[in-house]
From TrEMBL:
Reaction catalysed by this enzyme: L-glutamine + H2O = L-glutamate + NH4(+)
GO biological process: glutamate biosynthetic process; L-glutamine catabolic process
Record GO terms (molecular function): glutaminase activity
Pfam families: Glutaminase (PF04960)
Keyword NADP set for record: no
Top-rank taxon, per record: Bacteria
Keywords noted in UniProt: Acetylation, Hydrolase
Quaternary context: Homotetramer.
Similarity remark: Belongs to the glutaminase family.
Residues holding substrate: 63, 113, 160, 167, 191, 243, 261
Protein name: Glutaminase
EC number: 3.5.1.2
Annotated HAMAP family: Glutaminase
UniProt source species: uncultured Sulfurovum sp
Gene that this polypeptide is encoded by: glsA
Length: 307
């Protein structure tokens, strides 16, 4: 298949859609991004990459980082983690409080904010402190991407901390149900720093290829997750990766994937490739409008979906 040609066709076809949607502005530092940008990269088993658009431009990976933290946490806690966070789609917005009250402070899944905050809390407990936990997440992303230079953007993290009421409320509510073990402020700050990791589509697509190959990176040959664990992460990406639009995304794209409010989406085609796409304007569910469209075009043109 001529992947470069397919990506170039997609880049042309999405042009008219670049003005639809709205950049996330509840984190002021994200609102400053040029909204008309687009990039897409695929990484194959051999390590070969194909890209279009601004594939070297870094952006805030935001909720895509939840996949990294969850990968680390299941390796440490195994099934005991599921006492604190479920594995069901929420059908609610990424930062909803309502369900959490009804369900006794146990978030539906690790990819909504409440669930990701619990995962960060579990990492802080295990590694003995918030800085140690963040360092482990950073080291994990550096290792899976083969790039020791990756950093989080302190300005984005600070900007989110200044507008943290909703996430602090989620964490406080869970603490009232004894589902947060550490200091709420420390947990939320660590969560924001993890969300503020900066990567471009070339780096992100390279980093996530372990999920396309049963937890083992086919390029470095390092095993990051067992086959069973990778299956679970992919299943959660398929069912919960796009908040209350997860069904719609599976319906239109047909791949396990995770989005972030920075406008990035990563997707995996099992045993074939990992894909990263970025365009900052979001749809009403908080997922990249053009990113979703580009992935839909990709699976339609190539027939590469899991269905
Ligand atoms: N840091 C963001 C928040 O907690 C992540 C949300 C997202 O990317 O969907 O609101």
């Amino acid at each position: 298949m001529n992947y470069q040609k397919i990506l170039e066709e997609i880049e042309l076809e999405i042009q008219g859609a670049l003005e639809h949607g709205k950049v996330a502005d509840y984190i002021p530092a994200l609102a400053e991004v040029d909204p008309y940008q687009f990039a897409m990269t695929i990484t194959l088993e051999s390590g070969e990459q194909f890209s279009v658009g601004k594939s070297k431009e870094k952006f805030s990976i935001q909720s895509i980082s939840k996949v990294l933290a969850f990968s680390l946490a299941i390796d440490i806690y195994s099934t005991s983690l599921y006492k604190r966070v479920g594995v069901e789609p929420s059908g609610s917005a990424f930062n909803s409080l309502v369900q959490l009250e009804y369900e006794n402070g146990i978030p539906r899944n690790p990819f909504i904010n409440a669930g990701a905050i619990v995962v960060v809390d579990a990492l802080i407990t295990h590694f003995g402190g918030n800085y140690a936990a963040l360092e482990k997440v950073m080291n994990f992303v550096r290792e899976i991407s083969g790039n020791a230079d990756l950093q989080f953007d302190a300005i984005v993290a600070k900007s989110e901390m200044e507008h943290a009421s909703r996430n602090l409320a989620l964490a406080q509510l869970m603490k009232s149900f004894n589902n947060i073990e550490n200091d709420v402020h420390d947990v939320v700050q660590t969560y924001f720093r993890q969300c503020a990791i900066s990567m471009n589509t070339q780096e992100l697509s390279r980093a996530m290829i372990y999920l396309a190959f049963d937890g083992k990176d086919p390029i470095s040959k390092k095993e990051f997750l067992s086959e069973a664990q990778a299956k679970r992460v992919n299943a959660l990406m398929l069912t919960c990766g796009h908040y209350d639009a997860s069904g719609e995304f599976a319906f239109n794209v047909g791949l396990p994937a995770k989005s972030g409010v920075g406008g990035g989406i990563v997707a995996v085609v099992p045993n074939v490739m990992s894909i990263a796409v970025w365009s900052p304007r979001l749809n009403s569910h908080g997922n990249s409008h053009v990113g979703t469209l580009a992935l839909q075009l990709f699976t339609t043109k190539t027939g590469l979906s899991i269905f």
